[in-house]
Amino acid sequence: MSIQLEHTQSYLLTHHGGDGHLAAQRTQDSHTRNHDESFWRFWYQWTEKILPADGHVVDLGAGIGLFIQTMAQRFPDLTTTGIECAPYMLERMVELPSNGYIIVDDLNAPSSLFQQGSIDTCIANMLIHELHQPILLFKQVKQWLKPGGRLILIDMVRQPLESYLTHKHPDATQLERDQLEDSFQHFLEHNRYTPEDLSFMLQHCGFQVEILEPFKKGRAVRIAATA
After folding, report:
1. pLDDT at 94
2. What is the pLDDT of residue 155?
3. Is the pTM of this model over 0.70?
4. Rounded CA gap, 71 and 152, in Å?
């Protein structure tokens, strides 16, 4: 195992509060919420015309594999590959159909896992805010995707402290010290990029941003970008 991968794994555990089991459980609990009707509407709107029935989808930051499992089951001719490195996610990996796969790699600097121009669609759902920097990932994804292939990016975005804190705690003055420190740490870790930052980085790496759709009252964004 590389020192870089160990560093990323250590960071992710800290980012997830030091409790990998709880982080994996929260991933499972939030799956339906993060893949609700509006998610699937956006997904089909921006992938239907460019994703063939026997195409290849890559899930960046696959967690415990629920999206891989869903796609592989719904579309038996489709290949769905997930990339994950957190041991506590890999230990809780769901059973995958024969057309679903998982690869262990560090998305802060991903390896050349796929041939250039071989992937139809990549998705990064609630991943980018966890990366030290997403530039190397975006550059690699641009290489993996076929010309005209699409990256679907969904993530939390930077917001004012008032918006973030009052959404979770209407009266923060009533919180205990440990709750306050946890909330402010969470704010710092989930407040990295504005929608404009994400758009800039994608375009800088050669993508064409097709749509930037705010949701959750502006606390999150959905982006479809074309290679």
Report:
1. 94
2. 95
3. yes
4. 15
